Amino acid sequence: MNRKILNVSLYIWMAFALVSAIFVLFPQIDLYVSSLFFDGTKFPFKRTWFEQLFFHSVRPMIITFSVISIAIFIYNYFMKKNILNINAKVLLYLILTLSIAPGLIVNATLKDNWGRARPNEVVNFGGTKEFTPAFIPTNQGGYSFSSGHAAAAFSLMGFVVLASKRRKMWMVIVLSYASAMSLVRVAAGGHFLSDTVTSFFIVYISTSILYMLIFKKELNQ
């Protein structure tokens, strides 16, 4: 089980395949979880200050980390310093980590083309669209699969991977934040559970593969 494929542990690939199969074969799981936050007419958590705080937090957080990283890289380059080990290779890794999985894969490829209706749009929860299982494309024009906010939040793992100290602590913090973001999106009727879980696996796998491609020499040392 310690074997890795494309720098991703075999058990992660197996977990992704198993979880995906479960959501496809037992789609009622999504309906059940979403129903826990539905009061019969609406999702009360939607538009609350706490939900809005989380909803609008991830973009400025990513922008802030990115700007700081770029600023440190520029300083290191011109001043011949090595603050936080941010060099051209590290900066490339961070840019790709924050753009490929959340941007290209989740938002541009899946959300814009899959068509899955959000929980608050399906007839099961007072909407007009049909519920469809995860991974099953539909022409309803929905943007539920998979979760862009969850993917963006989980993409912060890219910064943690580069940490030289207290990496486990930072990983716990990032995963806690991203998991809370996922829960908030489900509670507000914006996504099904499968949307957020899928985003986690997409980001985790993409981040690991990018690390292998960019830091191949470091891995072989």
Q: Give start-end ranges of low-pLDDT stretches.
A: none
Q: Return the domain count.
A: 1
Distance between the termini: 22 Å
Decide which structural class fits the backbone. mainly alpha
| Major beta-sheet overview | 2 strands, antiparallel
- Percent helix, as a range, is 55-70%
Inertia-based shape: globular
Element-level helix/strand string: EEHHHHHHHHHH
Please report which band the strand proportion falls in: under 5%, 5-15%, 15-25%, 25-35%, 35-45% or over 45%: under 5%
Mean pLDDT: 94
The count of β-strands is 2
Gyration radius from CA atoms, angstroms? 19 Å
Strand numbers in spatial order across the main sheet: 1-2
Tally of DSSP helical segments: 10
Overview of this protein structure:
By secondary structure, the chain is mainly α. The protein has one domain. It has ten helices and two strands. Strands 1-2 form a two-stranded antiparallel sheet. Helix 5 packs antiparallel against helix 6, helix 6 runs antiparallel to helix 8 and helix 6 packs parallel to helix 9. It is globular. The model has no long low-confidence stretch (mean pLDDT about 95).
